[in-house]
C-alpha cells in the first residue's frame, strides 16, 4: 500500500466511523484504523533503520 492509498482509506474509514451508530461497526472500523496505524509505524521504523544504515555506510566510505 502506498501513502496515497492509505490516506484515502483513512479518510473513508473516518467518514464511515462518524456516520455509523452501531457500536459493533465502530469497533470493526477502529480495528482497521489500528491495523493501518501499526503498518505505518512499522514502515517508519524500517525507514529509520535504512537511513541510519546509509549514513553509517557513507561514514565508512569517507574514512577510507
Which range best describes the helical content: under 10%, 10-25%, 25-40%, 40-55%, 55-70% or over 70%?
A: over 70%
What order do the SSEs take from the amino end to the carboxyl end, as H and E?
Answer: HH
In whole angstroms, how far apart are the ends? 39 Å
Number of helices: 2
Beta-strand fraction estimate: under 5%
- Which quaternary structure do these chains form? single chain
Major sheet: size, sense and barrel closure?
none
Mean pLDDT: 90
Low-confidence stretches: none
- Give the structural class: mainly alpha
Shape: rod-shaped
Rg calc: 19 Å
Please tally the β strands and state the result.
0
Describe this structure in words.
By secondary structure, this protein is an all-alpha fold. It contains two helices and no strands. The protein has helices at residues 3-19, 23-63. Helix 1 packs antiparallel against helix 2 (23-63). The longest helix is centred in the C-terminal third of the chain and has 41 residues, at 23-63. It is rod-shaped and about 65 Å long. The N and C termini lie far apart (39 Å).
